[in-house]
Amino acid sequence: MASEKELLDQCVPINSLRVSDSCLVIRVLVFGSGIVKEFNNKTNQGTRKIVTLVDEEGTKIHATLFNGYIELWENYLQQNKICYIINGRINSTNPNFQSVHKELEIGFKKNTLVKESNSHFSTIDFSNNFISFDEASKCTNGTIFDIVGILVDVKPSIGEGSKKRREIVFINEMVDRKTVTLWNDFSEIDGQELQKLIDEKPVVAACDVRKTLYR
User: For residue 77, how far is the Cα from the chain centroid?
Assistant: First the structure.
């Protein structure tokens, strides 16, 4: 396999990817790692896992792994690790599922490789996407945005299956409160991690939050 310097020279940003691209290298931070789930449809069955990746420009994309690829790359695609994805196949997003990228997702195939990166990963550009609590309140229904605040409360998880959810509460520098609901995998995985940190009152970023108005 190529050296890290050679891989760095070959890297392209997520925003430059196009559907059906496959001979490429991207360098990403593993932003989130979902739960392994079973699936069974008309054409196939097995297990599936979705991993959220982000590059240094702050652009996020989902990578979907099936069956044996989940275990094969498990040690590399752990949350907060930095890695190169080599020869992943770029697919259009499935309109039946929510995605962090409007158009694209990454699929793994036989010649796809993952290599851990030891080089510095800059998150400076991530802050360009955050909005204030006041701006979030003015967003229209269905708007997707990023916010950051001090975590002050993590509610117990309630519901089952696709209705499983957990509320977390942020405050900002003006002590305004903002409630975010974590659904499904986020309720179970991220919710448990945040529960462990609640006594520290950490600063937490919530990305790709969708505003929903309940009546």
Answer: 12
- Tell me: do 151 and 80 sit in the same domain: no
Strands 60-66 and 104-107: parallel
Same-domain pairing of 92 and 134 = no
Q: Quick one: CA dihedral 85, 91, 94, 99, positive or negative?
A: positive
Residue 21: DSSP 8-state: -
DSSP state of 162: G
What does the block give as tokens for 173? 């520098």
For residues 114 and 150, membership in a common domain is answered with no
The domain that contains 169 carries what CATH number?
Answer: 2.40.50.140
- DSSP for residue 187: I
Q: Count the Cβ atoms, other than its own, within 10 Å of residue 82.
A: 16
Residues 16, 206, 74, 164, CA torsion sign: negative
- As beta bridge partners, residue 2 has none
Phi-psi region of 184 (alpha: psi -120 to 50; beta: other; left: phi over 0): left
Burial 176-212 (b: 16+ CB within 10 A, else e): eebebebbbbbbbbbbeebbeeeeeeeebebbbbeee
pLDDT tens for 21-78 read 888 999 999 988 888 989 888 888 999 999 999 999 989 999 999 999 999 999 999 9
- Distance of alpha carbon 194 from alpha carbon 196, whole angstroms: 5
